[in-house]
Amino acid sequence: ARHSRADDPSRRSRRRSSRARRSTMRAMDASSALAPRRRAIGTRGATRAKTSRAIARGAVRVAAGAVSQEYAMDERGVLMPTGKYCVNHAETVRRKTRTVHVGNVKIGSEHPIVKQTMTTSDTRDVEKTVAEVIRCADAGAEMVRITVQGMQEAKACKIIKETLVAKGYDTPLIADIHFAPKVAMMVAECFDKIRVNPGNFADGRKTFENILYETDEEYNAELAEIEEIFTPLVLKCKERGVAMRIGTNHGSLSARTLSRFGDTPMGMVESAFEFARICRKHDYHNFVFSMKASNPLVMVQAYRLLSHEMYKLGWDYPLHLGVTEAGEGEDGRMKSSIGIGALLLDGLGDTIRVSLTEASELEIEPCTRLANLGMKACAENIGVEQFEETVRDFKTFTRRTGDLPEQKDSDAIDFRNILHRDGSVLAAVTTAQLASEDGFYRELGAKLAVGMPLRDIATCDSILLSEVPAASEEKALRSIRRLQEIGCGVVVPADLLRATPLENAIALVSADEVGAPLPAGAARKAVTLNGFETVEQLKAVAASDAVMVLIKTKDGESRLHSSRRIAEVMAQVGAKMPVIHHMYMPTGDKSDIVIQSGSQVGGLLVDGFGDGVLIQYAGSDKDVSLDFLRTTSFGLLQGSRMRNTKTEYVSCPSCGRTLFDLQEVTAQIQEKTGHLPGVAIAVMGCIVNGPGEMADADFGYVGGAPGKIDLYVGKEVVKRGIAMETACDELIQLIKDNDRWIEKEVEEAVAA
């Protein structure tokens, strides 16, 4: 229901006011991460010479067609954006933040990154909740959040705290509050920190109405109401030394915020600032911010924008990082690594939570790996020499898109499919793998028809060979021919091809070799970069007919920062070929691969730079198979909102509000719907944050009452109160009714 805040009922209207429409469009223009497939090709900043002539005039606006940032020369003579979100775009330097005290734990830039998680037990079950907190603390959690939805839970919290202290556990406890200011006041008597959601803290009715605010007076009147409701909690926390998190959620922005900003990162920031201003008005500063979303691109842009706005205001509050409803397993870890890791490598973040649809204590292991990654990067100040950055704009999202290969009349095979328009996956393979034929094809993601490989939705687009099979290795050579016949590119270092020619290969050359003739048999060339090429070298690459560039960063150097520099120079010299991030990992396990690739490569993909990924592993872990590297690569692309090759799940990590066994139900739904690429399904234990939680989903499966499920299409509930026993089948029928269902293919059996 949409209605006006005005007293006169005749003013009720279903249309947005022209002011609201204009405000929403401005916000959407300022934040295009909500439409991540928007393309921007050929943008480039002003030249150094043009900029230098304008320095005397102070700040300089770059030329038309470039990004809308202002630049000025810093004390080192380097052109820098006057509006910034991190200390340094060329190296990881931790952003200075004040110390916030949460019990015996300190959060801020002078302290290690704090790891936290959240319980899934019913808070009223004191014994279970205490046991879960202890498991989390023993696993390494430094703070634990507990949902507190009503007075019964608040009363239980006092006993939970006392029981833990009696058992020798002083782990700070955080109350998760929605809709319930009175409950927050009560639990502030015993807990160490209160999390408030600006989108619903003052909405005790839980109506989720779509309200039209036609005038500033209506808008500001509700701000006054919020201040009246929120101020007692601020004063209580200040008096008792209790910390607070002002935690905005992309899926639960208030109707007031939506009417003016839309569901954008700017709206998320302003929602949090409304509450922060009240805190500051009462000289209360013991709080942190968070900007969570299930879409890593939205999440990253919101945090960057938050940091930017705090720089403008001179604020130094710590940041709690997290991707909400990330899901479970490798996908959940990958989405979290993309969002959290990208920000940590920018020097942002003081406490983190990895939200997984798993047991709460299992969140600590990936959380620890990410925290260590961030602390190490800051301690070593990883990065490159300063460079001018005029193309990347953290306030908007545009994806650089390389020109895909075109077919030539002289080509003996089809080269048009060696890369994919939505993001490419390459695989490094050995001669032994090639020789295994059927097993190799399956690990490459191909399907089989009478023993012949065929492309499937998640088949690797090209392969990289580290050796050329000898003439006697018939099976390996046959595999190469069959892959080339289905449009799979075969990339081979040029020096190997000179020694052992291979028909229709793609020769991999360095920037210095880009002008040399192709080796015998090679039909195309690709260029490998180490991230430190000169402008002249990259000019030569841009002038070549290379079909792709592979960035394989030098050992010990920062992939993120060196690749940002490459992106800047490639834009300046007009290089149009696709960029593949070639990540070489000499050691590590499966978790390392997910965390490192998500943080480093994902951090570049959320910048909009990159057309694909190649993860090459040289370690000894037998669990790291070619199939794992392939699925991880596709997961990285999907998590970065590029290429969809499987069903996307937005599933909450469960808490005491959850109305069913979330892990079990999620597994059941995935089993039946996991073959629907391009379809996003939200699985929510409750709807505490409102229908906005469905913002990134096509369909929603949500706990409405004990034993009952509500089904959504987008943000609209279409079926209520369905018995859990039939809800999964009803969901499938709903997907079918909306023409999004496909039948699962039966795979051909592997020959013994």
Please characterize this protein's 3D structure.
The chain is α/β, with parallel strands linked by helices and 752 residues long. The chain is 35% helix and 17% strand. The strands form 6 sheets. An 8-stranded parallel β-sheet has the order 11-10-9-8-7-6-13-12. Strands 14-17-18-19-20-21-22-23 form an 8-stranded parallel barrel. Helix 5 links the parallel strand 8 and strand 9. Helix 6 crosses helix 8, helix 7 crosses helix 8 and helix 8 crosses helix 9. The protein is globular. The N terminus is likely disordered.
Question: What are the salient characteristics of this protein?
Answer:
752 residues, eight-stranded parallel beta sheet, eight-stranded parallel beta barrel, globular, disordered N terminus
Sum this structure up briefly.
Helix content is 35%, strand content 17%. The chain is an alpha/beta fold. α3 crosses α4 and α18 (590-605) runs parallel beside α19 (626-639).
